[in-house]
Amino acid sequence: MLIGTVDSSLFHRQSKYIITYTEMQNNSRIEVVDALRGFAVAAIILLHSIEHFNCYSYPPTEGQSAWLNFTDRAIWDGMFFMFGGKAYAIFALLFGFSFYVMYHNQERRGADFRGRFCWRLVLLFLIGNLNAAFFTAEVLVLYSLVGFVLPLVCRLSNKTVMWMAAVCLLQPVEWAKILYAMFNPDAPIPIPLDSAFWAETMKVQTQGNFLETVKVNLWEGQLASLAWAWENARMFQTAALFMIGMVASRNAWFTDTPQNRRLWGWTLAGALIAFFPFYGLSPMLPRFIESQSVLKPLALIVSSLHKFSFMLIWVIGILFAFYSTRLQKVLGGLISYGRMSLTNYITQSIIGSFLFYNWGLGLYKELGITASILVGAIILVVQILFCNWWMRSHSHGPLEGLWRKMTWIGTKR
Predict the structure, then answer these.
(1) What is the pLDDT of residue 23?
(2) Reported confidence tier of residue 259, pLDDT bands at 50, 70, 90
(3) pTM of the model
(4) What CA–CA distances, in Å, run from 35 to 50, 319, 321, 323, 336?
């Protein structure tokens, strides 16, 4: 049964984790988690800005100075190396973390949160479609669909969940594609499902009015986004990150203890050791593998693993910096921003769509990459200032408060 009281045998099996979690967290927010979430959303706005919020149209570069050509390329390559596929991964990891915080708080009251969380995912689906009306390639709808894995696994042991996460990280569907291609070398290369949809959305973004943009974003844009996520190994990776985040929350791995510092150190060492060979292998694969049916899924597996490794480097590095150095004050400036991550993520989409799409200011044809990242930085600073002001007198951001209120609709909360 999904709805019911907590199974007593399960409670005793996991009591050591519950006690540890309660003692360390004591019902308070872990500020480093908010800082991590703020860091991820800050990186996302900068990436989306240089992408022109998935418009990918830019002014001609003929006659542009060599210096500006250099900064455009350096910013593009540097941003995607540092944050591409990593900021989103941190965001997903913390989604699983937050699930267990809510689940455990209800568990301590003798309540089962799983049914209520499923309703919360339905609400997230609706919120994600609001976001999608302005910005294709948003992730909230994907989270609302993949998130159903969490109530299915939340009563399993840590070991079982981590094994399931490991299988998902290894991308079983991509391995199946590789095996099929090896035994069927004459099979035609599948045509990407998302290409036609992206072409339609980008056409309207650069030529259409507001209503046309909303219409194409909510249909072709969502189909393109979900098809891209499936074909680029994001579905299984997202599920894995949700589960790892849940286990991290269950075991209070983000709190500052000597045991956790040792765990962070070993994790950081492992991530560094894994990242470099996987990252170095990616550009080598085309030299040795001719079959595109084998190359594409294998490249996705390798790419997802080096991005996962880099994401761990970011997370562990921020944990050490937050708890150990003077950078804590700098990272502390992202706490309010992280607490309002949903509000910030959606308002970024609205602002970016207005700035870059044809229905708004149409800056896609005016701003290159260097200018676009400066625009993103200005949006980020304004959002941070607003969040710090808002959180002085509110316990939740505007959309966070609404989501919370609607989550508990029909109750006395």
Answers:
(1) 43
(2) very high
(3) 0.91
(4) 23, 9, 11, 12, 8
The residue-averaged pLDDT of 323-337 equals: 87
Mean pLDDT, range 244-256, rounded to an integer: 96
In this structure, how many other beta carbons lie within 10 angstroms of the beta carbon of residue 113?
21
74's tokens: 């350096």
d(CA 403, CA 377): 27
For 270-282, how does the pLDDT look when each residue is reduced to its tens digit (9 = 90+)?
A: 999 999 999 999 9
Is residue 385 within 8 Å of 333, Cβ to Cβ? no
pLDDT for position 329: 81
138 touches 344 (CB < 8 A) = no
- What is the pLDDT averaged over residues 313-337? 90
User: CA 172, CA 264: separation in Å to the nearest integer?
Assistant: 28
C-alpha separations of 206 from 217, 223, 250 in Å? 13, 19, 46
Cβ atoms of 50 and 72 within 8 Å: the answer is no
- Per-residue confidence (pLDDT) for residue 162, from 0 to 100: 98
